[in-house]
Amino acid sequence: MVSRFLFLCLLLPLLTACTRPQATGFVAPIPEASRETIFIATLRSEGQRGQMFGEKRSTTMSYAEVDISIPPNHRIGRIERSRGQIDARRHFAPLGATPLSNSAALRARLTSLSKAPDEPLLLFVHGYNNTLEDAAFRLAQIQHDFELKTPALLFSWPSAGDPLGYAYDRDSVLFARADLARLLQDLTRTGQRRVIVLAHSMGSYLVMEALRQLALQGHSQSITSLEAVVLMSPDIDPDVFRKQAGEIGTLPQPFVIMTTQKDRVLNVASLLTGRKERLGRIQSAEELDGLAVMVLDFSLFETGENMGHMVPVSSPAAIRFLRRLTGGLGLAADEFSRYVLLGERRHTGRLLQ
Asked: Is there a domain that residue 6 lies in?
């Protein structure tokens, strides 16, 4: 017990060192920078210190359209952040935000800005220790680096945005699951929009809880109508995941789990949850036998700046690999064996070049 406590004392400052300054206010655009428009649905309260939304929980969903500037020196997979004053020539920068009155207004704007009507909507659910700005910048980076043609939607649940807020964030997942379920139901109700769900870390737990709630309420059509679900570095107990999947019933297809053995953040999560292995670090797809899922192991890619916790969207090599797969995220179920170990041949999978 003492050794575990001491180990956590050493690791938590490392996570705290990853804490980033938050922008206050908006900046003027510059011609040489790129601009990405994203949409936000959030249960966060109004922000403090010039932030649009803060970490406190709200019982009312808010919607907004946000423009984010990508600097001309942007390197694929990175988010160039400011340590002081924001300079749009060198940093990701918020240009402006327009509140939307309700979900109908959100859907109307998504439709009007779509450059490719057949392109699915990407719904991104962020993970633990994320402010709204963290998640918005990450989604803008994904949209830019994967060359998505359709504006993407961020569901920002009220994470504390604090590496010491793990328990608060786990409670916030339960606080937000019904609202995410309603959002998924709303987006898929008309049958006119294809939706891909990309969830990261603890956001994967939230997505599974929302899908489970839809199933238990008899709204399975909203689940099966999803184009795909991708869980990236999921912070879920594998036993809990199996139980959730069983209660959901038929999982959306394809259903993809992205793992890496180099994920140090999930190492910490494992200790915080009693040394229990997390789904994002499973050793073999055999651990998920009987479930209609695909596992992609990114262990042989470089870890990047996020302690190995966001390799599929932060590693340039991983991004280039994924972009070769039908636009990056639209994965066809018959293109892979159930387990793919990237980078070398093993009996459990096959090499993808």
From this structure: no
Q: Is residue 1 part of a domain?
A: no
CB neighbour burial string for 60-85, b if at least 16 within 10 angstroms, e if fewer: ebbbbbbbbbbbeebeebbbbbbeee
Maximum alpha-carbon separation in the chain: 58
Give the C-alpha separation, 260 to 266, whole Å.
10
In a domain, 179, yes or no: yes
| pTM exceeding 0.90 | no
Q: How many domains does the chain have?
A: 1
| Residue 21 CB neighbour total at 10 angstroms | 11
Peptide bond connecting 94 to the previous residue in cis, omega within 30 degrees of 0: no
Residue pLDDT, tens place only, 252-293 = 999 999 999 988 998 888 888 877 889 999 988 888 989 999
Q: Concatenated DSSP letters for 178-228? A: HHHHHHHHHHHHTS---EEEEEETHHHHHHHHHHHHHHHTT-HHHHHT-SE
The DSSP 8-state label assigned to residue 19 in this structure reads -
* Neighbour-count burial for 102-112, b at 16+ CB within 10 Å, e otherwise: eeeebbebbee
**Distance between CA atoms of residues 81 and 87, nearest Å:** 9
